[in-house]
Each structure stands twice: as C-alpha cells, then as structure tokens.
Sequence to fold (289 residues):
Amino acid sequence: MDLEDSAQLCVYENQPYGRLKLTEFKKLSAEIYKLCGIQLPDSKLSLIEGRVRRRVKSLGLNSFKEYMEYFFSAGGREEELVPLIDAVTTNKTDFFRENAHFEFLVNTVLLEMQNSLNSGFSVWSAGCSTGEEPYTLAIVLNEYFENKKNNLFTIYASDISTDVLKKAIDGIYSYESVEVIPMELKKKYLLKSKNSEKMLVRMCPEIRRQVIYSRINFMEDEYSIPGNLDAAFCRNVLIYFDKATQEKVLAKICNKIRTGGYLFIGHSETIIGMNLPLERAASTIYRKV
Fold:
C-alpha cells in the first residue's frame, strides 16, 4: 500500500463499503470518458466516491471492489452505465437562466425570421437536464406566437441522464425553483399542487406536450434529432468535455442547424480555436454560415 492509499484509508475507513481507491476511480473515469466523453479529474474523487457509494448500496453490494467487478463484468457495463452516469453527473439549471439568450431569441432571431415562420420554428435544448430550459423556451415561444396567425413551433430536448429526463417529462418543480418566473406567467402556465403543504407546481399539460424529449449521448455518431433546426441551445454542457471532444460535439450539433440558424452556448464556454461553421452574433451566441 502506497502513502496515498494509506492517507485515503485514514479518511474513509469508517465509511460504509470501504473506500474507492484512486486506481479504481481512474479506471471508472477512463471508461466514462471513452463511452460518454465526460472528464472526471482526480480532484473529483471524493465527490464521485460518495455518488458511487449510493450505487453500491442500491445494488445490494458489499464494497467498491464488488461494484468494480460487477461494472466490468460481461453485461454489467451495459446494465450499469446509465445509472452510473445518472449518479455522477451534476444537473444544475434554472428557469430563464442567462435570460439575455431568451431576449435575443425573441428580439433578434424570431424578428429576423418572421417572414419565414409560416413553415414553423424549431429549437433544440441539448443537455436539457430537469427541463427548466426547454420549458422556458416553451413559455417564451407561446408568449411570442400567442397573437400571431402562425403559432407552429417545435421544441426538442435531450439529455444523457434518464433520471433528469423523467423529472423533465413530469414537469414538477418546487415553489423556490419557479420564483424567477414572472407572476403573470406562473398564473398562465403553472398548476399548484392540490396539497398546499408540498409547495409544488407543475407545468400545465399544454406546455408539457410542446416538448419532445429523448435520451442522447453526445458520443454517438448521429443524434436522433431532426435536422434543419432554427436554433440550438447547448449551454453549460461543454464544460464536461476536453477541447477536442467539444469541437466534435459542436460540429455534430451544427449539422442539425440550418444555415442562418443560431447556436447558444453557456457564459463560461468558448468556441475560440475551433473549426466550426459559425460566426459570432453576440456574446456566447453564434450564427451558422
């Protein structure tokens, strides 16, 4: 046992199921990177250990060693990959997050495309998490098209995590999470729980029906989203990938956007140095050329 293992043992010896060794963590993280493109640096060991511990408990196993044996067994990876990804990925999102993007969508994108909207408007929330982004898009688009003759629009939403997709489809949120939504829009698009003690609201059926959800792994060669999109939101997703993977993912997303369509990325993300068919339209907003 080396000094690093000894130090870890002191920290984790009282934890249920023992400890996740650095060598085990590296093996798991390498497999996750290969299959999903998600980077898990060594600094994430403690965080990931806690989340994998929940999988060990859920499966009724006795140790991390047993979990590793199961995961890398014949059939184990196929059964456990999705639950493991669900466990290790962080899904932080909010309604109207980076609201300047939604203002740009209404005041620039839709205005620019107003003469071609008779054929409808399509947008993809790539990395939709628990649904706040696609439902924000649904609210914004409903408001925009409300008094117009043409109200055809399609919202696609995808994520790699089945857990967050289930929550998104249910469309149930806490009072706290919807505080940012203006009161007139809450009254219009949210339904309060009949049990007032639960402090929950649900997106109205009309809004829920307007979002088409699917599970997509960005490492797939082809994404199951129709092409010729008018816009795609891929925000705060690229941060999980290295630059080479970011460029490959964005190139495939760009293939789904029509020429003249728009790509929105997160405020902490950049496409500088990447060979992509995009030109800057505004901060973190790009137009396909």
User: Anything to note?
Assistant: The domain at 3-88 is CATH 1.10.155.10 (Chemotaxis Receptor Methyltransferase Cher; domain 1). The chain is about 45% helix and 20% strand. Residues 1-13 have pLDDT under 50 and may be disordered.
